[in-house]
Amino acid sequence: MKPGQLQVLLVAASILLGVGLFAPCMTLQPSYGNVTWLARLIDPDLVAPTTYSLLDGIRSLLTDSNVFIGVVVLLFSVVFPLWKLGVYWAATAQLASGQKPGAPVRWVNQLGKWSMLDVFVLAVLVVAVKGLPGGSRVEIEWGAAAFCASVLLSIYISLHITKTSAAPTEP
Amino acid sequence: MTEMVSTVKQPSPSPFFYVAPLLIVVAVGALFFMGGDKQQPEEGDGNKPSAEVKVGKDYYVLVTLMEFHPKKINGAKWDAGDSAPDIFYHLQWHDKTIFSTKNNAAKDVLIGKWMGLGADIKLSDLGNILKPGGKRLTPLNAIKAALISVEQDGELVVRAYDNDPLRDDFAGQCALRVTDLKQGDNEFFIDTNGHATRDRDELAKDRGGLKRLVLRVVDSALPIEELVKALR
């Protein structure tokens, strides 16, 4: 794959990351079993569905005394993916000018093992599958799919960058 | 594993490449914020009068708001001292009282409000309600409204009172042709002749007694979720 094509994929991965961070990630539909209607009478907000984006979740963690978890999620779900895409973009520019990508690509690939994708997917699945009290439901929204797609696309790009940079250069 | 390390210093790529993803993500975020501003839901007009009622259909009706003048029709004070009236009303249909808020009077007010839903639960009943096979508490038995059927020439009469321990003071009434009602909130003003009118300009300003009322009409055939929303 040519560096120009990789850059197109990087634009797509960046857009998907933006969508994944800002778009609705999950919707919580509260339910109180047989007395849901009564809860609605008392306070309609009690049964109003609430939709969160990934950034909303991080903000909630940071403001609700879960600063450590919030910072970890922020680093691995926002900062690291952004840095990774930036490094890949710089690497494709180097490949386009006939240079080999530098050490940052190796660092990113090493740190990529600590990516939060698997944890994120697992957490989302556990919340979605596990029955909540009173019949409350969690629905996964399209923002989660966009985030996962961005991470998978960046993995695909990294494989091609590694492959291209490992290929012998013509004399 | 060995790696080929070039001894020639490579020029660093432009910093733009590192910030490009951030710029794209910020742009996507800006689009979301702009889109979110446009999608503000319109609220608060769910009970505006809409379709007229249909003959042969059944509707829940209740007064959600009732306002009295500061004095009775005869110009006297409502209660001893400067106390405001305890407002309640009867709904009469076919000359029969089919609904009353005498036990739920709005105390010491000139404007009384009522909801179409409410559960009369005694503390002693609470345990039974929470048991799996206990007392049933359904939306239908929580509806606090009269049920009427729309007939040609049918009439609904709202009679307003001040609740007094000795004798309730009649504050006025409002006779309405059922076929003239609309679904949602119907606001009526009492004119100088004591008749109900939808025209605010015809309101009798110094008449005393009943001043205005809002009658809510809800299709009884609505799904229970919609019914709860409409009567709330």
How would you describe this structure to a colleague?
- The complex is a heterodimer of chains A (171) and B (232).
- With 171 residues, chain A is mostly helical.
- Chain A has helices spanning 3-22, 36-42, 54-63, 67-96, 103-111, 117-129, 142-166; strands spanning 24-29, 50-53, 137-140.
- Chain A is elongated.
- Chain B contains 3 helices and 10 strands.
- In chain B, a hairpin with a 5-residue loop joins β8 (184-190) and β9.
- At the A-B interface, α1, α2 and α4 of A face α1 and α3 of B.
Largest pleated sheet of chain B: 6 strands, antiparallel
The helix-and-strand class of chain A reads mainly alpha
Poorly predicted tracts of residues of chain B: 1-6, 39-44
The oligomerization state is: heterodimer
Distance between the termini of chain B: 72 Å
Strands in their spatial order, largest beta sheet of chain A: 2-1-3
Which regions of chain A contain 5 or more consecutive residues with pLDDT less than 50? none
Query: Approximately how much helix is present in the residues of chain B?
Result: 10-25%
Average pLDDT confidence of chain A is 80
Helix content of chain A: 55-70%
The number of helical runs of chain A is: 7
From the spread of the alpha carbons, the general shape of chain A counts as elongated
Radius of gyration of chain B (Å): 30 Å
> Main beta sheet of chain A: strand number and arrangement?
3 strands, antiparallel
> Which range does the strand content of chain B fall in?
25-35%
Instruction: Summarize the largest interface: chains and residue counts.
Output: A-B, 32 and 28 residues
Structural class of chain B: alpha+beta
Number of helices of chain B: 3
Order of helices and strands of chain B: HEEEEHEEEEEEH
